[in-house]
């Protein structure tokens, strides 16, 4: 991830410090960071170098330093990452510190006067911050209210990414020194080193759905995300979507070369539309015919997901938390996670790309909610859930699936994700044979990601992961309403939601579902249709189509639906939640 730092650039970066318009945080803000650093120090004890050397004799104090001092401090960027690039004195947390910059970290040690007995002071404590955790360096100035430029130089501020569990947040370290020369040298070196992180995006295409959930996406972006992107010097090109399909249309046409990533601010429906757009665009650019059984090519750009919807299953699954600042920090730091993606096709035509789908109870509930769009979001979801439970009835269908044969340590072993990435889809499919089951099902779920959400913190499909090249097929057979409710309730507690005789789970690479009822899904909703016609909302279904819930969006399918998993087809900005050692989300049921 880290490339060797470039040669020092011109003074322009320093003059760029004028872009820092605000008074920096008080020094106390660095205290939390100190704790974080202490924690990190323990983790990196073995690799840490000792920099408790005496301070340089020729300056670096908080008094203005001369050109002589600057020459002494300036050194060529070292080939050895542990070699000192620059060294000087800054005040950190009101203490004069001997500060050393190497290619990987900034280390500081408080300067204590020698004891009269000449004994070494055991309280001298070295602290450090890894540059991989720093995302910006800014010049810190004191400005009076309303003053836009100039101001008294106070030093430099490092902006770091701190993690607590799954949550990421911004933290600052203030390096105070009133010398312009001294600060300039440090600023240039730090800028150069930070620009060496090639995975961090510098230019992003951003889509904001202003209609998501309670219409908060725009405010979330403007107030919580855009200021962080600005701090990290990331250029953005923002499109506020005006209608369904707007992001897809833009992605089909726009020049993607100028961006390092795409960002979607909204709910799962918006994210799925952008994922579909990115992948469709990749197929178009590669000349693939998406309407045949095909092996799709990967999306050209990684996608960042800023949660601003109602469920935010995709953001939750890839960040372990629904938190816009965490999502923004993953983008800024360039954290990447390859994610399995599904294609949904019917009658030989690709309908869309996505991550998860539900048929039966899940599809009907969403269809009902869509018919009552005039209700506030949470109310219509609750209404639809109760209504669908009241009218609970099984679907008669035939489900065929291609199991994923997982040999321990074999190519499809989820632990060998690099192998999954390199495995041709045809290779895996050739090893399996289709299995078919038919009958009455209350719900069928097919999920390529764990689908974490507040109602199911372990995930709707805890037995799959983001990048293991498989999907979870969860088939809920016919059962009484009370048994079905018991099964649903278990998603929110620690009991195994699958330990019912009517629930079967499979690890699969493809699913084909063929409904066997003739009349489509309008048969039991005559009362709703009357109500809906009186509301004059557009009819969302027609005779002979079947309602699927695909990533929270209603997909009307004219008969059979084929779902195939494509291992690690898209890259999202984020991490594999299962690999976070202190992540609260743990699966204990399978
Ligand atoms: N300006 C707009 N007005 C109406 N719909 C829009 C607009 N822009 C985008 N859309 C569409 O709105 C749909 C739903 O958006 P989204 O998923 O972000 O919100 P949500 O449904 O409230 O959230 P969730 O899916 O998490 O429940 C998407 O299909 C998207 O294409």
Overall pLDDT level:
80
Largest sheet: 10 strands, antiparallel
Amino-to-carboxy terminus distance: 35 Å
> Cα-atom Rg, whole angstroms?
28 Å
Quantity of strands, as a count: 21
Structure classification: alpha+beta
Which second-level CATH architecture of the largest domain applies? Answer: Sandwich
- What ranges have pLDDT less than 50 throughout 5 or more consecutive residues? 1-78, 408-424, 519-541, 581-590
Give the domain tally: 3
InterPro entries: ATP-NAD_kinase_N, CERK_C, CERK_PH, Diacylglycerol_kinase_cat_dom, Lipid_Phosphate_FormReg, NAD/diacylglycerol_kinase_sf
GO molecular function, one term: lipid kinase activity
Biased composition (Low complexity): 58-68
Domain DAGKc: 199-348
What does the secondary structure layout of this molecule look like, with pairings?
Blueprint (H helix, E strand, L loop, with lengths): L11 H4 L13 H15 L23 H7 L12 E7 L2 E7 L3 E6 L16 E4 L3 E9 L9 E13 L2 E10 L3 H15 L8 E6 L8 H15 L3 E6 L5 H8 L7 E6 L1 H18 L17 E5 L5 H7 L4 H10 L2 E11 L2 E6 L1 E5 H11 L5 H14 L4 E9 L13 H6 L2 H6 L4 E13 L23 E7 L3 H9 L13 E13 L10 H10 L10 E5 L2 E5 L3 E13 L17
Parallel strand pairs: 8-9, 8-10, 10-11
Antiparallel strand pairs: 1-2, 2-3, 3-4, 5-6, 6-7, 12-13, 12-21, 14-16, 14-19, 15-16, 15-18, 16-17, 17-18, 18-21, 19-20
Helix pairs in contact: 5-9, 6-7, 10-11
Bound molecules: adenosine-5'-triphosphate (ATP).
Protein name: Ceramide kinase-like
GO molecular function: lipid kinase activity
Pfam families: CERK_C, DAGK_cat, PH_CERK
């Amino acid at each position: 991830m880290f490339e060797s730092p470039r040669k020092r650039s011109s003074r322009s970066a320093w003059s760029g410090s004028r872009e820092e318009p605000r008074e920096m945080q008080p020094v106390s803000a660095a205290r939390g960071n100190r704790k974080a650093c202490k924690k990190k120090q323990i983790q990196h004890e073995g690799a840490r170098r000792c920099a408790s050397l005496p301070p340089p004799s020729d300056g670096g104090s908080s008094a203005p330093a001369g050109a002589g001092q600057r020459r002494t401090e300036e050194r060529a960027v070292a080939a050895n990452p542990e070699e000192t690039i620059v060294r000087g004195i800054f005040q950190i947390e009101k203490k004069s510190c001997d500060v050393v910059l190497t290619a990987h970290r900034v280390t500081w040690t408080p300067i204590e006067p020698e004891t009269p007995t000449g004994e070494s002071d055991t309280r001298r404590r070295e602290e450090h911050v890894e540059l991989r955790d720093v995302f910006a360096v800014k010049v810190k100035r004191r400005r009076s209210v309303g003053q836009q430029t100039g101001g008294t130089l106070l030093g430099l501020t490092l902006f770091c990414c701190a993690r607590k569990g799954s949550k990421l947040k911004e933290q600052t370290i203030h390096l105070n020194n009133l010398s312009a020369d001294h600060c300039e040298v440090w600023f240039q070196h730090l800028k150069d080193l930070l620009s060496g992180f090639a995975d961090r995006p510098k230019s992003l295409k951003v889509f904001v759905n202003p209609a998501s959930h309670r219409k908060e996406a725009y405010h979330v972006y403007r107030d919580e995300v855009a200021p962080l992107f600005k701090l990290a010097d990331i250029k953005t090109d923002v499109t506020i979507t005006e209608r369904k399909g707007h992001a897809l249309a833009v992605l089909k046409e726009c020049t993607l070369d100028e961006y390092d990533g795409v960002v979607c601010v909204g709910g799962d429906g918006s994210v799925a539309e952008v994922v579909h757009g990115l992948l469709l665009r990749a197929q178009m650019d590669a000349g693939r015919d998406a309407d045949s059984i095909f092996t799709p090519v990967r999306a050209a750009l990684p996608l960042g997901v800023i949660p601003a919807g109602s469920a935010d299953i995709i953001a939750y699954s890839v960040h372990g938390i629904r938190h816009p600042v965490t999502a923004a920090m993953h983008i800024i730091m360039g954290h990447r996670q390859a994610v399995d993606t599904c294609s949904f096709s019917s009658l030989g035509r690709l309908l869309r790309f996505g991550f998860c789908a539900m048929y039966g109870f899940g599809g009907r509930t969403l269809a009902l909610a869509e018919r009552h769009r005039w209700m506030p979001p949470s109310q219509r979801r609750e209404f639809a859930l109760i209504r669908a439970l009241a009218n609970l009835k099984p679907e008669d269908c035939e489900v065929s699936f291609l199991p994923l044969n997982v040999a321990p340590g074999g190519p499809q072993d989820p632990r060998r994700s690099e192998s999954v990435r390199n495995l041709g889809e045809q290779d895996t499919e050739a090893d399996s044979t289709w299995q078919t089951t038919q009958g009455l099902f209350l719900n069928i779920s097919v999920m390529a990601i764990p689908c974490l959400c507040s109602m199911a913190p372990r995930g709707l499909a805890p037995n799959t992961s983001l990048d293991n090249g498989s999907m979870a097929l969860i088939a809920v057979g016919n059962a009484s309403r009370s048994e079905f409710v018991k099964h649903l309730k278990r998603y929110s507690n620690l009991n195994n939601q699958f330990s019912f005789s009517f629930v079967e789970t499979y690890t699969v690479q493809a699913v084909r579902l063929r409904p066997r009822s003739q009349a489509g899904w309008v048969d039991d909703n005559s009362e709703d249709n009357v109500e809906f016609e009186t509301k004059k909302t557009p009819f969302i279904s027609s005779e002979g189509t079947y309602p699927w819930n695909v990533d929270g969006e209603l997909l009307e399918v004219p008969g059979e639906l084929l779902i195939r998993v494509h291992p690690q087809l898209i890259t999202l900005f984020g991490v594999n939640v299962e690999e976070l050692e202190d992540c609260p989300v743990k699966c204990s049921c399978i």
